[in-house]
Amino acid sequence: MARLRDVRERVHQPRYDTLVRGVGTSTVTNSTTLFGSANISNRALSNLQVAGQLAADATYILKAVRCVLNFQGLNDVEFTVAFGALPAIANSTASNARAEDLYGIVAYGATFTLQVGNKPMLNAPLFYAPAGGGPAGFTTENSRTVITNGVASQESILKLAKDIPIAARQNFAIVVDFFPFSVLGVGAGGGGINAGIDPLAYLNQFDGLKLVQMHIDGVETRDVQ
Description:
Helix content is about 10%, strand content about 35%. The protein is mainly beta and about 220 residues long. The strands form 2 sheets. Strands 1, 2, 4, 7 and 9 form a 5-stranded antiparallel sheet that branches. The N and C termini lie close together (about 5 Å).
């Protein structure tokens, strides 16, 4: 489609990329770089069209960062019994209790680093960047609890103290790092604690539904077609 010469438009357009999305055990590696080439052309995982940068000489004013977490255990009757044409889920051992624990283990056990060009612009734990949306509330149905990363409100996102400009053809990325919770001492009863908690190992071993996704949010300036 032809572009209008010397005419540009500004739109509010979040960009996202995904650390993990699916069902079953996974093989996420530490220090994974998002907004690279891995998920390009897969809209379920990323809406970036060019690896590491915006397409067609677009520019961006980055105003916020978000982290979406979603975990769902599949080892209960709602999934292990067929529902209409939907088959029963087999061989998933993850419970909702383990899913709920995973929210805190991942949010507090990992950090993200936002990079623009070759500069780190922001480094913080995942919990520092609330999703600002998603299902919210309370339920007693099948002992479920509705959880999201932070308060499900647009007012509760990580708004940057200063906008970060991304120039045309400038690379940007988010790197996600996991750090284990090490054993500090013995148990309260005096017995030895045999292992710490490795958030990445728990994330990979969880065989229910899981989603960890990073969003940048701001204003994109692009050509008019």
